[in-house]
């Protein structure tokens, strides 16, 4: 699909009221909206953007026809705010790894929350934060999700186009490996033995890392039905030790299943010793796939 997709005739009704809000995140997914560049004027003409602090000082508490939400829920205040925002939104769309999977900050979920807070802030008693950073869907119903760190600009174009035309978004359900094949990228696992999460990660990035000779980091999270245990077992069988394999899955979307189970079983997350697994199944899924002799804040982004 190309940037011309947004040139379809506008709907007859007034443009939908759109809001863009953030919780605990880096703002990168909001910036992807601004990175549309050539389409920005047309987007502004077709949507009534009433809340977007990254781009405008104008503010609105709703209601919204469409609300884009960036960031994980990491504070008690955010947990209350997302419930109210859900009430104000007809359609709620989560954008990015933080909102859809908890983000890199969810690595703290395996560690001692109070110890982490004390290590970061000189006066931790002034910082109200939850013991876990969790995705938006753990708190309210989500109507659509754009994954990634940051989100893919082509998928964003497709979603906006579908909103204009009143149809279902046509976003491919495929692994990063499929994108590698279409772009003629050499498989880094086959060619150089580089560990890669491409076989179990949802596509949408255009196979960015493998095209530059690096393994996939799993930014878009596990695709539906991903056999992460088998891939982890393959890495173990190749001679990597357990924490090393766990670290491969302990990235931007580590809190999303089945990545969470792999990290909980094998370790690899910062401070993972004696950690809270969040109820993850620790029945040895990765071990079963490996030989027995393998090596052993508020809407402005409070933390």
Describe this structure in words.
Mean pLDDT is 86; it is low at 1-13 and 274-297. The chain folds into two domains: 3-165, NADH:ubiquinone oxidoreductase-like, 20kDa subunit (Rossmann fold, 3-Layer(aba) Sandwich); 176-288, no CATH class. By secondary structure, the chain is α/β, with parallel strands linked by helices. The chain starts with 16 loop residues before the first strand and ends in a 15-residue tail after the last helix. The protein has helices at residues 28-34, 40-46, 76-88, 97-101, 113-120, 153-165, 176-182, 188-192, 208-211, 228-237, 242-249, 259-266, 285-288, and strands at residues 17-22, 48-51, 64-70, 89-95, 144-146. Helix content is 33%, strand content 9%. The protein has a five-stranded parallel beta sheet with strand order 2-1-3-4-5.
Which short descriptors sum up this protein?
alpha/beta, disordered N terminus, globular, Rossmann fold, 33% helix, 303 residues, 5-stranded parallel sheet
Averaged pLDDT, please?
86
Structural shape:
globular
Uncertain spans, ≥5 residues at pLDDT below 50? 1-13, 274-297
In the sheet with the most strands, the strands line up as: 2-1-3-4-5
Give the C-level CATH assignment of the largest domain: Alpha Beta
The SS-based structural class is alpha/beta
Query: Helix fraction?
Result: 25-40%
